[in-house]
Amino acid sequence: MLFQTTIAGSLPKPEWLAEPNKLWAPWKLKGEELDHAKRDATLLWVKIQEDAGIDLITEGEQARQHFVHGFLERVEGIDFAHKVEMGIRKDRYKAMVPQVVAPLKLKGRVHADEARAARAHTTRKLKFTLPGPMTIIDTLADSYYGDRVKMAFAFAELLNAEAKALQADGVDMIQFDEPAFNVFLDEVNEWGIEALTRAAEGLTCKTAVHICYGYGIKANTDWKESLGAEWRQYEKIFPVIDKSPIQQVAIECRNSHVPLELLALLKGKIVQAGVIDVASDVIETPDDVVKTIEAVMKFVPKENIMATTNCGMAPMRRDIAEAKLRALGAGAKLAREKLG
Predict the structure, then answer these.
(1) Helix, strand or coil, per DSSP, at residue 270
(2) CA-CA distance, 247 to 209, in Å (whole number)?
(3) How far apart are CA 11 and CA 196, in angstroms?
(4) Average pLDDT over residues 64-88
(5) Are 23 and 315 in contact (CB under 8 A)?
(6) pLDDT over 90 at 272, yes or no
(7) Per-residue confidence band for 219, with pLDDT thresholds at 50, 70 and 90
(8) Rounded to whole angstroms, how far apart are CA atoms 189 and 205?
(9) Could you give the CA distance from residue 290 to residue 285 in angstroms, rounded to a whole number?
(10) Residue from 66, 71, 59 nearest 25 by CA
(11) Which ranges constitute the DSSP H helices of the chain?
(12) In what order do the strands lie in the sheet containing 141-142?
């Protein structure tokens, strides 16, 4: 089927689970009540995605406070009690981050509960997102390894173990989120794509990497305004990504300053084209979605295009996120009728 739909990964937390419209929002519950609430929120968003016509659904990252820290919480060797302030994404913004203080090791399974809950309650294809190695090491402080590359590959080993376990849980696609890829361009070519490849090694399910200019939060929107009329960072990293074994690339296209002709550099990949803008509360129409797909089709064969959101929706108002999901599903359906 042409123009299958998916989302970047995250969806807003219900107001009974965490404070709405806020990144890194604290949980409102504890213990067993929190576990039940996370599961309930997961199933809620599975149903909403199905109703909206999303083909490849996610669990909405409902059990994670943050897309990176949700993984780190299950890793030995990380000190969450003594956080330090650090610049993230080349000092785009500051954050209080945990420290790596000892050799890294998984405490056990990381995302088994939410993956199995989602898998048990849908017959549709299921995608699960994990942070990529480069983005992880850019989101915490190193007080042990003294070598960014060595630490990234240590995380790649852990990611690979969890990815294989998620595959065994019935996940159909593992997507690694690497927003750091458009910041550390030389490092992507030098070691970043190699670390990502290690994280995906041995997987037989579909694999993807999500690269973007970030959530629709002020720090990111301010940074985007400094980038000029064209965002050409991807021109430097798409060739090496295209040569990698990662099968799909998720990229923002709606209201983006990324020149769409750069997508032609991804000759061997399925392109998850972002047709929904997550930095705006304006609800796209189905025709808007069709127009973005048509623009992408100038550079990517239509059989290689999926339709997705530009980035995660975690900080977005829930009613707006739901409306955008419906627009995504309806727009892809209209695109099949018009462009198929």
Answers:
(1) strand
(2) 8
(3) 24
(4) 92
(5) yes
(6) yes
(7) low
(8) 25
(9) 9
(10) 66
(11) 31-52, 69-72, 112-120, 133-137, 148-168, 185-187, 193-199, 218-225, 234-243, 286-297, 318-339
(12) 75-88, 93-106, 141-142
Is the pLDDT score of 205 beyond 60? yes
Residue ranges with strand state E in 211-289: 248-252, 270-276
The amino acid sitting at 32 is: E
Give the phi and the psi of residue 236 in degrees, each rounded to 5. Answer: -85, -25
Q: How far is 336 from 1, CA to CA, in rounded Å?
A: 8
Give 248's strand partners: 208, 270
Give dist(CA 70, CA 130) in Å, integer: 9
pLDDT over 70 (residue 224):
no
So what's the pLDDT on residue 225?
65
Structure tokens at 235: 């021109």
Closest by CA position to 300, among listed 2, 6, 53 = 2
- Provide φ and ψ at 339, rounded to 5°: -115, -10
Spatial separation of the C-alpha atoms in residues 184 and 190, rounded to whole Å: 10
Query: 186: buried, middle or exposed (CB in 10 Å: 19+, 13-18, 0-12)?
Result: exposed
How many angstroms separate the CA atoms of 310 and 334, rounded?
19
Give the CB-side neighbour count of residue 243, counting CA atoms within 13 A. Answer: 8
Helix, strand, coil in percent for the chain, rounding step 5:
40, 20, 40
> Is 183 in contact with 89 (CB distance < 8 Å)?
yes
**Amino acid at the residue 91:** D
Residue 156: is it exposed, middle or buried by C-beta count within 10 angstroms (0-12/13-18/19+)? buried
- Bridge-partner residues for 85, per DSSP? 96
User: What count of other Cβ atoms lies within 10 Å of the Cβ of residue 272?
Assistant: 29
Percentage of the chain exceeding pLDDT 70? 95
Contact indicator for 214, 220 with CB cutoff of 8 Å: yes
CA distance readout (Å), 331 to 33, 54, 279: 38, 11, 19
Q: Which helix (H) or strand (E) holds 102?
A: strand 93-106
